[in-house]
C-alpha cells in the first residue's frame, strides 16, 4: 500500500525527519504530521466586538454581518504515529483536537504543512454515512458496504455489530428508523459499525463518552484489539480515565499548539497540574 498525501492524494515523498523503520515492519510510521497549520475561514463574520449593542444595531439596520474572519485552529503541529500505537488527544475546549483529527482523516486541507498517511484513515462516525429514515438494520448493512465490507462479510458480522451496540437490549429498536434513536444510541451504532472492520488508522472522537459503562468497556476492549491487529488508533476524549485505560501515548494541544507529546502518565500528570 502506498503512502498518500491526504492534501493532494499524490504518493508521499519519504519523510525527511525522524527514524524510518522498514515500511510494513512493526512500529512503521502510519501518520506523519509535518508542521501542520489549519485555518478556518468564517464567512459573514461580524467586524465589531460582538457586543449586544452592535448585534442589536445590525438587526435594526437589517444588515448582515459582513467580512471574513480566520480562525487559526491548529498551529505548526508535528508528530509521527506508528503501527500499534494508541494515541490520546487531550486539551481544553477549542484547543484544536477535533480539527487535527479531521485533518488526519483528510477531511480538512492544511493551510500549510503536510499530513502523510499509510493506508486509509477512518474517522469513526463520519465514514459510516447513516440515514435517519432507514432502520438500524438497513443502516448496519449500508454502513458495512460503505466501509468496503462484502455482502457476505456484512452478513457474518451483522449480529455482532447489533450486539456490540446494545441497541436491542431494551426492545426491538434495530428494526425502527434511526430518527427514533436517542443521540447516544445513534452514536453507539455508528461506533459499532465502524469498529466491525480492521482499520490501518482509526480516528475516534469522544465515542467513548456515549453510552453506559458497559458499552464504554466493550469499546475500550475493541480499541485494544484493533491496536493488536496492527493499526494505529487516535482517541479524542475529555475523559482522562478512558485515555489512561486505552492509550499509551498522548498529544496535548492548547490553543492549537502541541504542548507535550509523550507517555500517557507523564502527559496526563502535567495536564492535570495545568488544570
Ligand atoms: N467549522 C469551523 N469553522 C470555524 N471555526 C471552527 C470550526 N470548527 C472549529 N472551529 C474553531 O477552531 C478551534 C478548534 O476547535 P476544535 O473543535 O478543533 O477544538 P477541540 O479541542 O476539539 O474542542 P472541544 O474539546 O470543545 O470539542 C476553536 O477555536 C473553534 O471555535
What's the topology here?
Layout: E1 3-5, E2 29-43, H1 52-61, E3 68-82, E4 86-90, H2 97-104, E5 112-118, E6 121-123, H3 136-146, H4 151-165, H5 183-194, E7 201-205, H6 213-228, E8 232-236, H7 240-246, E9 249-254, E10 257-263, H8 264-274
Parallel strand pairs: 4-8, 4-9, 6-7, 7-8
Antiparallel strand pairs: 1-5, 2-3, 2-5, 9-10
Helix pairs in contact: 3-4, 3-5, 4-5
Verbal overview:
Residues 57-275 form the ABC transporter domain. It holds the Pfam family ABC_tran. Keywords: ATP-binding, Nucleotide-binding, Transport. This is ABC transporter ATP-binding protein. Residues 1-28 are annotated as: Disordered. By secondary structure, this protein is of the alpha/beta class. The chain has a single domain, classed as P-loop containing nucleotide triphosphate hydrolases (Rossmann fold), CATH 3.40.50. It has a six-stranded mixed sheet, with helices on both faces. A four-stranded antiparallel sheet has the order 1-5-2-3, covered by helices on one side. It has helices at residues 52-61, 97-104, 136-146, 151-165, 183-194, 213-228, 240-246, 264-274; strands spanning 3-5, 29-43, 68-82, 86-90, 112-118, 121-123, 201-205, 232-236, 249-254, 257-263. Bound molecules: adenosine-5'-triphosphate.
What small molecules does the structure contain? adenosine-5'-triphosphate
How much of the sequence is in beta strands?
A: 25-35%
Question: What string, H for helix and E for strand, traces the elements in order?
Answer: EEHEEHEEHHHEHEHEEH
Low-confidence stretches: 6-25
Mean pLDDT: 83
Instruction: Please compute the radius of gyration using only Cα atoms.
Output: 21 Å
Helix/strand-derived category reads: alpha/beta
Helix content: 25-40%
CA-CA gap between termini: 42 Å
Q: Kindly report the name of the CATH homologous superfamily.
A: P-loop containing nucleotide triphosphate hydrolases
Corresponding CATH architecture? 3-Layer(aba) Sandwich
**CATH class annotation:** Alpha Beta
Largest sheet: 6 strands, mixed
Q: Enumerate how many helices there are, as a single number.
A: 8
